[in-house]
Amino acid sequence: xxxxxxxxxxxxxxxxRQNEYYYVDKTNLIKELLESRIAEVTLITRPRRFGKTxxxxxxxxxxxxxxxxxxxxxxxxxxxDIELCQKWMNQYPTLFISFKDVDxxxxxxxxxxxxxxxxxxxxxxxxxxxxxxxxxxDKKIFLKLQDISEENLSEDLIKISVATxxxxxxxxxxxxxxxxxxxxxxxxxxxxxxxxYKEMLDVMKTMMSTSLKDNxxxxxxxxxxxxxxxxxSIFTGTNNFISDTIIATxxxxxxxxxxxxxxxxxxxxGLQEHFKEIKEWYDGYNFGKIDVYCPWDVMNYxxxxxxxxxxxxxxxxxxxxxxxxxxxFIDYAGSSITRKxxxxxxxxxxxxxxxxxxxxxxxxxxxDNLWSILYLTxxxxxxxxxxxxxxxxxxLAALAIPNAEIQEIFETTVQTWFSDSARSWNxxxxxxxxxxxDSEAMTREMNTLLRMTISYHDYxxxxxxxxxxxxxxxxxxxxxxxxxxGEGRSDVxxxxxxxxxxxxxxxxxxxxxxxxxPDCTEALAQIDDxxxxxxxxxxxxxxxxxGISFFxxxxxxxxx
Length: 560
Prior knowledge:
Elements: H1 13-18, H2 28-35, E1 41-45, H3 52-63, H4 82-88, E2 94-98, H5 107-124, H6 136-146, H7 155-159, H8 161-173, E3 177-182, H9 186-194, H10 197-212, E4 218-225, E5 228-229, H11 231-234, E6 241-244, H12 259-269, H13 275-282, E7 285-287, E8 290-292, H14 295-307, H15 324-332, H16 335-345, E9 350-352, E10 357-358, H17 367-376, E11 381-383, H18 385-388, E12 397-400, H19 404-424, H20 428-436, H21 439-451, H22 461-472, E13 478-481, E14 484-485, E15 488-489, E16 492-496, E17 501-509, H23 516-529, E18 542-551, E19 554-559
Parallel strand pairs: 1-4, 1-6, 2-3, 3-4, 5-10, 17-18
Antiparallel strand pairs: 7-8, 9-12, 11-12, 13-16, 14-15, 16-17, 18-19
Helix pairs in contact: 5-6, 6-8, 8-10, 9-10, 15-19, 19-22, 20-21
């Protein structure tokens, strides 16, 4: 099936089905929501790119009374339930609003984006302005909301906008309204990052409250986001309310791809041989009792494989979002957090309390909040007891990095952090020791810097090579790693062209502390045996050669 059209970046259900894109059937989400509906408002939280928007779009097309969706749902699982479809398909006025684009560097620009979104929604439902069943005062508000050129539109009108539209739709159709709010917390996340959280919280809190609290015009509401914002913060007064998070066991198969779904995709497209690397790179998320893959990653990689069958897996997820959360986490890191990060990045797990009810303004208020954020946003996943063979203490969760893609994101972020941090460290004493040939002082200073780093990969040699190069980078020196010369490659060469001098480093990783000195001697001998320094002797006044051995966060330096 090489002619299969892959829906990369398509989140509109109608477009996907109308144009015959490949669709992994998630329509039983409709049945699950309707049959288990014990609350008026359902909040579904999942990480980014796990199919929330396409799921909400699918719900909108199914319920919307203005549409005829029979052809869109033809041959899909939900169509087999004839009675349910007769009762619910295109039978209710449906209001679908996405907040994913409500962004701004300040409150004014964010409000303009929000106002534009509301204006667009009003124009989509323009028929309400002419309805003889709608209250005239509501029409006046509606016309103001509809006018995108209305520069002086008050915050108060925006706050009641959604509730007003719902009331008008209910009056027009004579039926209660189904409300679908997608990515409800994006405006708050952006506000928190840019310093206007309290102002945006006030707007969103009132908008949600007036729409959801004791609203007789509402049939039910489904709300999606990344985080479950504390009820007292934004869902105040919303009594008939349930949430479905990644910890829950209810709707998890509908957000993300299951193992079988990935196998089916690969079979349909003829790429079964790539299942192993897809599983390694994009699986590993344990949502409730379901193991899922990130759909965005799977579809992107499958698309690239069709273009180039030799394509290696890549990190697609990081390119869709701001990974500043990891960086801020690392910047915050004390000794406890640093140690836990090292365990995670070495393939281990940590046990932490998970706080599901968070507010963006208190994300950094505690270490528990920080780990909770990494978990709830998809940077960590929960490990089950049967997978680790240990009993997890009551009230705690075992957390690990889910897959190779997220591992790469962590490593890249840590490497960037180290490079940035190294520039701020006082390295004067170390540089002086290098050019003075003082190996004892070098040992002392480098041990100090090692203790300040976040290490990973179980202290493999590539970590220490990066550490060495990072120390000298950005300090006015030319730094070359694994340069070929003589009869091989030295690990790191530092060149000071202004003063005509070079330092050649050969590094060794010691497997025990007892081996640290003999390994250092071996490294120094390797420089001699393979003539690493020879090519520099004619062009530089001073060529210094150092053997250096590492064991965890300790090192030993010798000079030739």
